[in-house]
Amino acid sequence: MTKVTMTVNGKSVSGDVAGNRLLVEFLREDLRMTGTHVGCDTSQCGACVVHVNGEAVKSCTMFAAEADGADVATIEGQAAADGTLNTIQQAFQDYHGLQCGFCTPGMVMSAAALLKDNPKPTEAEVRDYLEGNICRCTGYHNIVRAIMAASGQDVPAVAAE
Amino acid sequence: MPKDHGIGASTKRREDVRFLTGVGNYTDDINIHGQAYVHFLRSDVAHGRITNLDTAAAAAMPGVVRIFTGADFEGVGGLPCGWEVTDKHGQPMKEPAHPVLAQGKVRHVGDPIAAIVADTLEQARNAAEAIEVDIEELPAVVDMKAALADGATLVHDDLSDNLCYDWGFVEENKAAVDAAIANSAHVTTLELVNNRLVANPMEPRVAVGDYARGTGDSTLYTTSQNPHVIRLLMGAFVLGIPEHKLRVVAPDVGGGFGTKIFHYAEEAFCTFAAKAINRAVKWTSSRSEAFMSDCHGRDHVTKIELGLDADNNFTALRCLTYANMGAYLSTFAPSVPTWLHGTLLAGNYKTPLVYTNVKAVFTNTVPVDAYRGAGRPEATYQLERVIDKAAREVGADPVELRRQNFITEFPYQTPVAVVYDTGDYHATMDKMLELIDRDGFAARRSASEAKGKLRGLGINCFIEACGIAPSNLVGQLGARAGLYESATVRVNATGGLVVMTGSHSHGQGHETAFPQVISEMIGIPEEQVEIVHGDTANTPMGMGTYGSRSIAVGGSAMVRATEKIINKTKKIAAHLMEASEADIELKDGQFTVSGTDKSVAWGDVCLAAYVPHNYPLEDIEPGLEETAFYDPSNFTYPAGAYACEVEVDPETGHVKIEKFVSADDFGNVINPMIVEGQVHGGIAQGIGQALLENCVYDDNGQLLSASYMDYTMPRADDLPHMDSYSVDHSCQTPCTHNPLGVKGCGEAGAIGSPPTVINAILDALQSGGHKVDHIDMPATPARVWAAINQAS
Question: Which residue of B317, B507, B614, B634 shows the fewest CB atoms closer than 10 Å?
Answer without folding.
Answer: B614
